[in-house]
Design brief:
373 residues; alpha/beta; Rossmann fold; Helicase, Ruva Protein, domain 3; 14 helices; 9 strands; 10% strand
């Protein structure tokens, strides 16, 4: 058994590199000045590259000093466990199995770190060595919609974004870290790069707004287009019209946007009803801590099933309702929210008849945001 054996894998190359490098540097420091250290590139471009990498790695783990010194080996950027033509090759799979076996069976004075990215989570190559490895970390990308507050990866990325913005010396609205992760959360490296870009955009000491994120930060990978809904929730008409223009530049149908808006409206109508009844007090910052839990204890049974549904406000996550949904309830009256819900239905009907979807949605937004009741 090796002194230390770590496997770090995932689709997010920034996090994989960060954790693997931390293990490597810690092992080198612990071994002292006489350490025999080696970083081997595991990046394969063609199937024919695999045998050479395998030979180099196995030779390294099996060649130890006769004087008993510690050896630290990092197989870095190992891109074999993927859903690619190369990764699916039977020869590559066999070679990968031999590499993992050699790592797990290396001499006791050897430390081995393997960082695998990109990574296909459906493959079992690495999982089979979970019990053997001293450290086994699999990083999954943040969900496309981190706003439920239940995605550890997204929450970690929001913490990194918050810290980075603070280091850059800029101020930012409460929802900015969430908005950045919602746009580019598939890559932590891109999250941090976009923080720097936004800081340059507003300048030293400037303030980044949610609308700046949607204007400056492009959607990355499978990110969702939430901007029009966030603009509607903020009751910011200029931003909303610009967001709709960007939405219809990328999308031909209004249905996904209306479906998302209706889901938000169903929760807002229930929330605003509770506010008007005196059960909650809402501001543009959301609900104070404990308000939602207190109201849920009082009225939750009235709503019936606890199964998560936009038809049941109290089946939602406390954090999501208090910080993401509630601020919009301070910008609209109950009658305005009901009117907006009915207007969504009218737009759906028009879309089903093949009418002018973009114009209908713009008209709906204008009526909702420009006219107060």
């Amino acid at each position: 058994m090796p002194t230390f054996f770590a496997i770090v894998a995932g689709k997010d190359e920034y996090l994989v590199e960060r954790d693997a490098r931390a293990f490597y540097e810690k092992a080198v420091k612990k071994a002292g000045v006489d350490v025999d250290k080696e970083i081997i590139s595991g990046m394969m471009i063609r199937v024919e590259d695999a045998p050479a990498i395998e030979y180099q790695f196995i030779e390294s783990v099996q060649t130890v000093s006769m004087f008993g010194g510690t050896k630290v080996i990092w197989l870095r950027n190992w891109n074999w466990i993927t859903d690619s033509k190369q990764g699916k090759s039977e020869d590559v799979k066999a070679s990968a199995a031999r590499i993992l076996k050699a790592a797990a069976e290396s001499a006791e004075q050897v430390t081995v770190i393997i960082s695998a990215t990109p990574y296909d989570g459906r493959r079992k190559d690495l999982v089979n060595f979970k019990s053997t490895a001293h450290e086994f970390i699999i990083h999954s990308p943040a969900s496309k919609s981190p706003f439920g507050g239940e995605d550890p990866q997204a929450l970690m990325q929001m913490e990194l974004a918050t810290k980075r913005l603070q280091e850059l010396g800029v101020k930012f609205a409460r929802g900015v870290p969430e908005a950045i992760v919602g746009r580019v959360g598939q890559s932590t490296r891109v999250v941090l790069m976009e923080c720097e870009k936004l800081a340059i955009y507003v300048g030293p000491g400037g303030t980044i707004k949610d609308s700046d994120v949607y204007l400056i930060v492009p959607t990355f990978g499978d990110g969702d287009f939430f901007e029009p809904i966030e603009a509607w929730a903020a009751r910011d008409l200029p931003w909303a019209l610009e967001a709709l223009e960007r939405y219809f530049f990328n999308e031909s149908s209004c249905r996904p946007l209306l479906a998302a808006l209706q889901s938000r409206l169903r929760l807002l109508i229930q929330l605003r009803s509770c506010v008007d009844a005196g059960d909650m007090k809402v501001t543009t910052a959301g609900l104070a801590k404990g308000q939602f839990a207190t109201a849920a204890a009082r009225h939750g049974a009235t709503f019936g099933s606890a199964a998560k549904s936009s038809a049941n406000l109290f089946s939602q996550n406390d954090w999501y309702v208090s910080t993401k949904v509630a601020p919009a309830a301070a910008n609209y009256t109950l009658s305005e929210l009901i009117d907006a819900q009915l207007a969504c239905g009218e737009c759906f009907d028009l879309a089903n008849r093949g009418g002018g979807e973009e114009q209908a949605v713009r008209t709906m937004f204008l009526r909702a945001l420009a006219v107060r009741r």
